[in-house]
């Protein structure tokens, strides 16, 4: 629990008013000085501020005013995945709202009203937004629509069943009467919204299933969009920070005499584990930070290296794990893991630590006073940010206001609140608002990294059928830190995701999880999460088994997918669209992967060339997907195209390494990204489906990596067992 | 005191002459459409035009700019190619998170100014300095081709 300061409640309102007067005065002073001109500062509208008596707010997600403008309060944050549009479509569909009058607002930090049902907290992640809100938002829309119908029917004295709705209008055809929702706001407000309103049949959808233009993109094309890093509250100062380069280390000594001499440097803030420089602009802060001479007490992780992390993981892989899934009799089918039967095929797969490298470096702006905190950020976890700032500021959460902004890339990094906590700790020492922006180097070196995993698999064939399968996952548990109640009996549900529920029909199967936390780093969610590891390991071994059985990789998979017809259909379509089986030049190959991760059924074919130096050139990517009802089909295609590139980037370049406790990568020159000149055609084919929507933000990433690995296998005969690719091994092979 | 011509206006700023243009635009002039991505000219998020040519503002000291005209994303839509590029970006739904897109649009506009009908190799050469972490490259390529084919808008 967060301790409350005595006396802050009773006079908080008065003090808040005084403080805002004060900050306005500061703003005038600063704005008229020659050094600063703050333009373009448009504060986000806060939901509670915006609501007034002239509008109708039937639930947490909808507000309709008398002019007929429909404001949708979106509980999930926009980070490029198009969720402001797709979730608005769910609400507007059942509301029968006039789409041209729809506008979107960020939901405020409010865990009760805006909880993600998939997590039980207010969070955006795990490719859950459309899946988790598919029913609740349509219900919210339908329930509100029912109130307008009831209001119109009462006014006209007609049965509700005779009324229909379209474009924010209730229509009674028999009497040729119409009333807009705006005109019905007063009456509708008096009606109790029904709890369980009927929802539309798929055939009646007018918005869902059509490629609707995104609501967030016009302002992103002209520079007007405000990301967290763009906020400029009146009087803001700029800061950047250096945390101890070794996790857990402390500041021993700071010599700041050169830094304080730099024009524009205002203040050096020294905390126990980090140093921040506050200045008139980021350049002053950055120059000041570079001019500091900091001595660190590096602490217990000073000798951590990648070698140490891997040796511990590999050692863990020798242990029996906690059994997460058991079908049939694995011991009988395979023998024990220490003494397997002679015809058992075993393989070890590894994937490395990865940074997120969101294009928008981490940042958070905080204005602290003794009685309130105001926070500007782009975050996937609004409520956790509020709690973190409250803790750092020693304020009750009710006195912390968080303004969420557009997010310049999340990919899981902004499911953490560390940037808000450190910003608030710095802000305690700064008079007025301070924007804390991490340099790219700090962002890469103090990430919350995608875990490294070490997987051991054993399988046995009888003819061309897999009869036994054991999969032992060894790695960090992100869930145990991030959502502890979900970590049960030693099994991380994310760590075994797509392994325990792998789609192949195998009569004897065991999946084990071995928690092994790496020293010297904190691990977190990264686009694709656990399935990144499991789909890579499974789809790699399946390809090797197909080879062993002398079967085509698609035929072999298909034969083991008889219980998953939606995946078979995706495989059939990708076979057709990818030109599978047609002749290719030397050192070129095609690889396939399939998965049911995030409740989407996806088959992907990557075609590549491996040159004599071992460099891999991407030639083509083809994907077929059945993701259930495609709410906004063009967004789904975009997510898969981008997800593929995210995965291929990791496969070709991604690895974070440590030496002497320090992360060795720092910026885009040594933590590389795919660029446009390396990108092949990427074709996505949607399969029509009436099933409930699946998740789509992450599966493109998880699909691409094993498909590329298998393409390299086909091109060279080299069965890579580790990511990223090793060009030395591929050079001159075959 | 440094004098700059920003988006057609003369601006006087009290900053050190070695301060990169990026921070003058963002933190002093409040033109936050130009983005900070890496600080070492590796990602292109900070791309602006200097006399119509694309430059990375994160490494460009303001003291070296002189009277050359600085154009940012905030006004690029007022140029014929800027407007065509922005329209094509929205028509093709290029944008995801959007953070890199100011830089992408500035690079693409400069490309069309230099080469009205770029082929794939021209696009690769002009755009390879701009990283997009969301992976919108396929659509960037399509949108540049659409913009190149588009008539100049009447407005």
Give an overview of the whole structure.
The complex is a heterodimer of chains A (734) and B (155). Chain A is α+β, with helices and mostly antiparallel strands and 734 residues long. Chain A folds into three domains: 47-219, Aldehyde oxidase/xanthine dehydrogenase, molybdopterin binding domain (Aldehyde Oxidoreductase, domain 4); 228-300 and 362-437, Aldehyde Oxidoreductase, domain 4 (2-Layer Sandwich), CATH 3.30.365; 307-353 and 449-730, Aldehyde Oxidoreductase, domain 4 (2-Layer Sandwich). Helices cover 31% and strands 22% of the residues of chain A. Chain A contains 20 helices and 27 strands. In chain A, strand 1 (55-59) and strand 2 (62-65) form a beta hairpin. The N and C termini of chain A lie far apart (62 Å). Chain B folds into two domains: 2-75, Roll (Ubiquitin-like (UB roll)), CATH 3.10.20.30; 76-149, DNA polymerase, domain 1 (Orthogonal Bundle). In chain B, 38% of the residues lie in helices and 14% in strands. Chain B has helices spanning 21-28, 73-76, 80-91, 101-114, 120-127, 137-149; strands at residues 2-6, 9-13, 47-50, 53-56, 69-71. In chain B, 61% of the residues are buried. At the A-B interface, helix 7, helix 8 and helix 18 of A face helix 1, helix 2, helix 3, helix 4 and helix 5 of B.
Task: Fill in the keyword field for this structure.
heterodimer; A: 734 residues; alpha+beta; Aldehyde Oxidoreductase, domain 4; seven-stranded mixed sheet; five-stranded mixed sheet; 20 helices; disordered N terminus; B: 155 residues; Ubiquitin-like (UB roll); DNA polymerase, domain 1
Number of helices of chain B: 6
The CATH superfamily of the largest domain in chain A is identified as Aldehyde oxidase/xanthine dehydrogenase, molybdopterin binding domain
Mean pLDDT of chain A: 92
In which range does the helix fraction of chain A lie?
Answer: 25-40%
Main pleated sheet of chain B: 5 strands, mixed
Please give the order of strands in the largest beta sheet of chain A.
Answer: 10-11-8-18-15-16-17
Q: Strand-and-helix sequence of chain B, N→C?
A: EEHEEEHHHHH
Structural class assignment of chain B:
alpha+beta
Based on CA atoms alone, the radius of gyration of chain A comes out at 28 Å
The helix/strand class of chain A is alpha+beta
The major β-sheet of chain A equals: 7 strands, mixed
Shape of chain A: globular
**Helical percent range of chain B?**
25-40%
Count of domain modules of chain A: 3
Shape category of chain B: globular
Low-confidence stretches of chain A: 1-52
The CA-CA distance between the termini of chain B, in Å, is 38 Å
CATH class descriptor name of the largest domain in chain B = Alpha Beta
**Largest interface between protein chains, with number of residues from each side:** A-B, 71 and 62 residues
Q: Using the coordinates shown, work out and report the CATH topology of the largest domain in chain B.
A: Ubiquitin-like (UB roll)
Based on DSSP secondary structure assignment, what is the total number of beta strands of chain B? 5
